[in-house]
Amino acid sequence: MDIQKIGIVGAGQMGNGIAHVCALAGYDVVLNDISQDMLDKALALIDRNLERQVSRGKISDEEKQSAMARISTTLVLTELGPSDLIIEAATERETVKQAIFEDLLPHLKPETILTSNTSSISITRLASRTDRPEKFMGFHFMNPVPVMQLVELIRGIATDEATFAACKAVVDKLGKTAATAEDFPAFIVNRILMPMINEAVYTLYEGVGNVRSIDESLKLGANHPMGPLELADFIGLDTCLAIMNVLHDGLADTKYRPCPLLTKYVEAGWLGRKTERGFYDYRGDTPVPTR
Ligand SMILES: CC(=O)CC(=O)SCCNC(=O)CCNC(=O)[C@H](O)C(C)(C)COP(=O)(O)OP(=O)(O)OC[C@H]1O[C@@H](n2cnc3c(N)ncnc32)[C@H](O)[C@@H]1OP(=O)(O)O
Ligand SMILES: NC(=O)C1=CN([C@@H]2O[C@H](COP(=O)(O)OP(=O)(O)OC[C@H]3O[C@@H](n4cnc5c(N)ncnc54)[C@H](OP(=O)(O)O)[C@@H]3O)[C@@H](O)[C@H]2O)C=CC1
Questions:
Q1: Any catalytic annotation for residue 206?
Q2: Is 60 among the residues known to form the active site?
Q3: pLDDT band at residue 135, thresholds of 50, 70 and 90?
Q4: Per UniProt, where does NAD(+) bind (predicted)?
């Protein structure tokens, strides 16, 4: 299938990054969210991130302007109806994602491909609640989307080859690299990354180190670009907890139990950078550890 129009649901940090790279690659993009404020913020951020690429000589000002012109935003989910491909990037909660697909389906063309940017949730289960499980896939971008090279492609049990080939062609056109993963909880990247982040929170919880020493240890001792707690704040602590819960429930192994301290931060609404407080407090000029 020749994909030209892409509908993106959810204008948070992933949705805006996905809109950015799709528009830059020449796709027409309609970005949907339930909050006008999120849509406005997303457009402003895309503009800023494209400008950063212009100032570093990565793209021309003309390319930036055409990319911006290819993005429209809407609060009305049904306006994604004419899309050839849907990329759902709303909150990491299965009921939210199911409801979005349910509301969207009656307005879509029969050939439209459905995908989810979920970090962990079963693609097979999400697909089974739609009228087209063979045209449903996991399309998992990494954060920050304009910078990270990888896209994980996850087939559900029913996904057909034409759907996989169409999604792979999109990844190629974005100039990114596809890795295929089987549909098991959290796929490849988060199966490995999230237990490490959770272990860093246990290390903090048990007092083995503080926020700064834990992050510095992994940055200077293992050459990670960000420490695990800094990265958790960057991803969003609600998303990290949701992924650990999917691993714990789906694999039924206590080694995946979420650290109670991670739960406590989420309960406090300290979700990391997006709420300006998590393992660090971002409200001042420089991030200050909260422990
Ligand atoms: C949870 C999931 O489901 C899956 C996931 O995504 S897991 C998370 C995966 N992501 C990571 O692990 C990210 C780890 N961190 C990093 O790689 C780096 O810290 C980083 C790329 C985010 C920033 O790198 P840095 O060297 O500290 O910053 P900086 O020098 O300012 O940026 C590097 C480049 O990225 C660009 N950049 C940084 N953040 C950006 C953003 N949000 N949007 C667009 N461009 C951005 C910069 O413009 C710069 O570009 P050039 O190389 O062209 O100059
Ligand atoms: N953060 C990361 O590093 C990565 C996340 N992902 C995945 O991407 C998805 C999005 O994550 P992320 O962008 O970080 O999350 P954010 O919290 O930044 O954004 C989610 C957005 O979805 C919106 N939303 C919630 N419900 C609906 C709905 N019914 N219709 C439309 N929009 C809705 C939220 O609105 P509101 O705020 O008003 O609730 C919010 O704007 C998740 O599935 C996550 O697991 C994948 C890779 C990396």
A1: no
A2: no
A3: very high
A4: 10-15, 33, 92, 97, 119, 143, 274
pTM score over 0.95: yes
13 Cβ closer than 6 Å to some ligand 2 atom: yes
- 194 within 8 A of 187, measured Cβ to Cβ: no
Ligand 1 atom at minimal distance to the Cα of residue 119: 3
Cβ 21 under 6 angstroms from ligand 1? no
First-last CA distance in the chain: 51
Catalytic residue among 88, 117, 152, 198: 152
Strand partners for 181: 154
For residue 125, the tally of other CB atoms under 10 A from its CB is 15
- Domains of the chain, first to last: 5-182 (3.40.50.720), 190-289 (1.10.1040.10)
Share of the chain above pLDDT 70, in %: 100
Buried b vs exposed e over 40-57: b needs ≥16 C-beta within 10 Å? ebbbebbeebbeebeeee
Q: Is ligand 2 within 6 A of the CB of residue 100?
A: yes
* Ligand 2 atom having least distance to the Cα of 141: 47
Q: 35 in ligand 2 pocket by Cβ < 6 Å?
A: yes
Q: Whose CA is nearest to atom 32 of ligand 1?
A: 147
Helix (H), strand (E), coil (C) string for 200-267? HHHHHHCCCCCHHHHHHHHHHHHCCCCCHHHHHHHHCHHHHHHHHHHHHHHHCCHHHCCCHHHHHHHH
pLDDT tens digits, residue range 49-84? 999 999 999 999 999 999 999 999 999 999 999 999
Say how many C-beta atoms besides its own lie within 10 A of residue 220's C-beta: 10
pLDDT in tens, 158-208: 999 999 999 999 999 999 999 999 999 999 999 999 999 999 999 999 999
